[in-house]
TrEMBL record:
Keywords: Membrane, Transmembrane, Transmembrane helix. This is Carboxylesterase 2-like protein 1. It holds the Pfam family COesterase. The chain crosses the membrane at residues 12-31. Residues 40-149, 155-392 form the Carboxylesterase type B domain. The lineage of its organism: Eukaryota, Metazoa, Chordata, Craniata, Vertebrata. Belongs to the type-B carboxylesterase/lipase family. It comes from Monodelphis domestica (Gray short-tailed opossum). PROSITE patterns: CARBOXYLESTERASE_B_2. Coiled coil: none annotated. It comes from the Eukaryota.
Length: 412
């Protein structure tokens, strides 16, 4: 007997399967060619658009796709560094069957990712003119139907006097371009806004993987140990001279190279992902529900492309939340996990709560610090990164305060 049943796959997330498939060239055979139809014309605030319908063979389901719908005027010329403006309207039916350009980015990153993961990704044009939405809805959805929405925020900034080629050349000088407090999108530092409660108080799912710095990030970026560590210390407001605290906390007197690698990867994963995510959850849960998770399963897809020591690497959970595991060459247990995760996410999109029938109860993250452990066997954990969280949120701030006081005395 099959361990999963696609007939109960949440309708709102059937479209999620496609979101991953369109990225991986090897899965195109799972889709049948889309076709235009008069009943795929929809009316937006700016004008009408015509999409296409694509069938997902293995699930015997279809997805209505509307590509390249503008949500703002192109941020080019005088609109560089300017607040977004509403898009111009159009009179004719706009063709929405081809992908718009991606925002400006270094194509070398994609090449490195392909090499590291041994996959081939399709090439998409890049341009500043990239403020478009690609919308996927369950097949046969009628105009006016109310559907849950998953939302992603995107920003695009360029220097007004530079060409696209010059902009790309400049970005190659930086490993990462940090967020900028510009007074509009970010009026103040994000942590100040969180501490003041100046954010939208809505339910959230927040989570991390248990090996965020396991493979893909260092493999693609080839970061130098000291430069990488110092960069993230500075970006989090920690003076590099206090970096020794991290070394003592995570590496101590370890001499074995393998154990040093394990501890360094945990340190970087905590600094970059786990601790910031937990801090955001703690700021938010007092006013609105937060559901926290740690994804812990290594996808079988990467059995031949990543070293054996890698666990749930950065981004691995997306394969399961967007349904790749329901269609790809995966184990039955992975299909079950993917189905459960998609159910949680669909319930959350609909109701602001991931829980539902036949699912393990996912407790809200509160003072008890309970969270969902997403693995082949679901379970509820408690106090993720407990001692390390205390180190980052109590010990480090106290040492920073002492360091500032000492500097002040020296200056006097």
């Amino acid at each position: 007997r099959k361990m999963w049943n696609t007939s109960v796959l949440p309708k709102a997330l059937t479209l999620g399967v496609l979101c991953f498939l369109i990225l991986v060239k090897g899965f195109y055979s799972l889709l049948s060619t889309g076709h235009k139809a008069d009943d795929l014309i929809r009316t937006t605030e700016s004008g009408q658009v015509q999409g296409t319908q694509i069938s997902i063979k293995k699930l015997d389901k279809s997805v209505d796709v509307f590509l390249g719908i503008p949500f703002a005027k192109p941020p080019i010329g005088a609109l560089r560094f300017s607040p977004p403006q509403a898009p111009d309207s159009w009179n004719n039916v706009r063709d929405a069957t081809s992908y718009p350009p991606m925002c400006l980015q270094d194509g070398l990153i994609q090449e490195k990712m392909e090499k590291a993961l041994k996959i081939k990704l399709p090439r998409v044009a890049i341009s500043e003119d990239c403020l478009y939405l690609n919308i996927y809805v369950p097949g046969n959805t009628k105009e006016g139907d109310r559907l849950p929405v998953s939302q992603i925020s995107v920003t695009s900034r360029c220097l007004r006097s530079k060409s696209e080629e010059e902009m790309l050349a400049m970005t190659k000088l930086f490993k990462i371009i940090p967020g900028v407090v510009d007074g509009k999108f970010l009026p103040r530092h994000p942590e100040e806004l969180l501490a003041a409660g100046e954010f939208h108080h809505v339910p959230c799912i927040i989570g991390v993987n248990n090996h965020e710095y396991g493979w893909i990030i260092p493999a693609v970026r080839f970061w130098n140990f000291l430069l990488c560590t110092n960069f993230f210390l500075i970006s989090t407001g920690i003076p590099p001279e206090l970096g020794h605290l991290m070394i003592e906390e995570y590496l101590g007197d370890i001499e074995d190279p393998r154990e040093l690698r394990v501890q360094y990867q945990e340190m970087m994963g905590d600094l970059m992902f786990a601790i910031p995510a937990l801090k955001v959850a703690k700021y938010q849960h007092s006013d609105s529900p937060v559901y926290f998770y740690e994804f812990q399963h290594r996808p079988s897809l990467f059995k031949d492309s990543k070293p054996d020591f890698v666990k749930a690497d950065h981004g691995d959970e997306l394969l399961f939340t967007f349904g790749w595991s329901l269609l790809g060459d995966t184990t039955e247990e992975e299909k079950v996990l993917s189905h459960k995760m998609m159910s949680y996410w669909a319930n959350f999109a609909r109701h602001g709560n991931p829980n539902g029938a036949d699912l393990l109860q996912w407790p809200a993250y509160d003072q008890n610090e309970e969270y969902m452990q997403l693995n082949l066997q679901l379970s509820v954990g408690k106090s993720l990164k407990g001692n390390k969280l205390e180190f980052w949120t109590k010990t480090v701030p106290q040492k920073m305060k002492e360091s500032l006081l000492q500097k002040g005395r020296m200056e006097l």
